[in-house]
């Protein structure tokens, strides 16, 4: 069974074709600048063939046509016929309180996803466009499944997901903590249990998805009890260009002083803050790392803030869990920036975390494994995430039940 995994953004469409017989990627690609001049289409196969071209894609349906043609292309294709695509799995950012698990797509599901657009205006609108475009290009006879970033976090208790604002806003507008990166946290937590040779039901773990967007999740027996992102992906700790948690009065104070609209303030909080805002260098941690090594004091400060905040979240979640068996680092920064892992480990020494410096330095560039010492009571792992595989597995399971 071959499953096409789709992640549709407002002006992009990423895809992977996965052969579920061996759970290996067959090809992957990206449609960029959809609806804008100078669209870019890239397609890479597992055996090393690569196609890149400039092509205008008016909408998501046009982007899907590019994907469709590339899959069966005589030179760059990986299948002989589209009939080899058994199903399509879509990543959906916001499932709200409606969706607690992955589901097969029908018109009601699409309408429910669209009803959640106010909670994720950029993401869910793009996702619904992607689903409708996929049906238009591939036909409604091809089963489609939607997998929600928020679903894994649906086990949080009210004490973790409620905000301290009047209860009426929860009743009227569903204002609460939802959490994100759920497919990533789900994958690495289950993979960690496998590496430890234990049943996930017997483990307390903290998973750290650290990238340009970042979140930390407390997982008890395979179920989420708390997570750092909130109503939106802005909550939590410092990210590439996002603030993370801050005193709400900072927002109103700056708005009044600078005479900003809500939209302008939103841009500052989401696009101009975090590593970028503090360092003044970049939202990319690799650039900030280079600047810090060259003596840039603001870049050094940005890293100190980041490492301090990550450590505080992990420590707090140890309290929430009543202990911790394992900590996992994943995503671009978590998988590759060993210096952050070392500093966080140093902060947590008094709780029993012991990082092996050599293991830590070696565990980069897609490597998976233990970076704590053999005698560390809390095990620390680096596990490359694979959200696409989670989506493909869910899609396969639902399609086989049809």
General description of the model:
Helices cover 40% and strands 19% of the residues. The protein has 402 residues and is an alpha/beta fold. The chain has an 8-stranded mixed sheet with strand order 5-4-3-2-1-6-8-7, sandwiched between helices. Helix 1 (60-71) packs across helix 3, helix 2 runs antiparallel to helix 3 and helix 11 (297-321) crosses helix 13 (338-347). The longest helix is centred in the last third of the chain and has 25 residues, at 297-321. The relative contact order is 0.11.
Features:
Nucleotidyltransferase, domain 5; alpha/beta; 402 residues; globular; six-stranded mixed beta sheet; eight-stranded mixed beta sheet
Secondary structural class: alpha/beta
* Rg over C-alpha atoms, rounded to the nearest angstrom: 21 Å
Q: What characteristic shape results from the CA principal axes?
A: globular
The major pleated sheet works out as:
8 strands, mixed
Q: What is the number of domains? A: 2
| Fourth-level CATH superfamily of the largest domain | ATPase, nucleotide binding domain
The ordered string of helix (H) and strand (E) elements is EEEEEHEEHHEHHHEEEHHHHHEHHHEEH
In total, how many beta strands? 14
Multimeric state: single chain
Sequence of strands across the biggest β-sheet: 5-4-3-2-1-6-8-7
């Amino acid at each position: 069974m071959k499953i096409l995994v789709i992640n549709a953004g407002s002006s992009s469409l990423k895809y992977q074709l996965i052969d579920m017989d061996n759970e290996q990627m067959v090809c992957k690609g990206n449609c960029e600048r959809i609806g804008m001049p100078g669209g870019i289409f890239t397609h890479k196969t597992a055996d090393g063939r690569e196609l890149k071209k400039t092509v205008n894609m008016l909408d998501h349906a046009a982007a899907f046509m590019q994907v469709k043609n590339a899959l069966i292309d005589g030179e760059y294709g990986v299948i002989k016929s589209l009939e080899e695509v058994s199903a399509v799995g879509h990543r959906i950012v916001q499932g709200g309180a409606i969706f607690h698990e992955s589901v097969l797509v029908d018109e009601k599901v699409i309408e429910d996803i669209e009803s959640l657009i106010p909670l994720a205006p950029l993401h869910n609108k793009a996702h619904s466009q992607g689903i409708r475009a996929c049906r238009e290009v591939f036909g409604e006879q091809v089963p489609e499944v939607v997998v929600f970033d928020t679903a894994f976090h649906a086990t949080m208790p009210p004490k973790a997901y409620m905000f301290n604002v009047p209860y009426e806003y929860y009743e009227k507008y569903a204002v609460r903590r939802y959490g994100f990166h759920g497919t990533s946290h789900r994958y690495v937590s289950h993979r960690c249990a496998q590496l430890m040779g234990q049943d996930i039901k017997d483990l307390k773990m903290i998973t750290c998805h650290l990238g340009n967007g970042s979140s930390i999740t407390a997982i008890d027996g395979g179920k989420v009890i708390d997570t750092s992102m909130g109503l939106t992906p802005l909550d939590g700790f410092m990210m590439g260009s996002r603030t993370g948690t801050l005193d709400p009065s900072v927002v109103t104070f700056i708005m009044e002083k600078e005479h900003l609209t809500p939209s302008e303030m939103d841009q500052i909080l989401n696009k101009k803050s975090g590593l970028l805002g503090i360092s003044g260098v970049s939202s990319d941690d690799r650039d900030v790392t280079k600047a810090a090594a060259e003596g840039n004091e603001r870049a050094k400060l940005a890293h100190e803030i980041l490492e301090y905040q990550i450590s505080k979240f992990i420590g707090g979640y140890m309290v929430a869990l009543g202990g911790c068996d394992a900590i996992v680092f994943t995503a671009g920064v978590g998988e590759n920036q060993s210096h952050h892992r070392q500093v966080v480990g140093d902060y947590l020494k008094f709780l029993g975390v012991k990082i092996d410096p050599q293991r830590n330095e070696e565990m980069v560039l897609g490597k998976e494994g233990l970076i704590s010492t053999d005698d560390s009571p809390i095990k620390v792992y680096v596990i490359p995430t694979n959200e696409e595989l989670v989506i493909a597995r869910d899609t396969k399971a639902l399609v086989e039940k049809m």
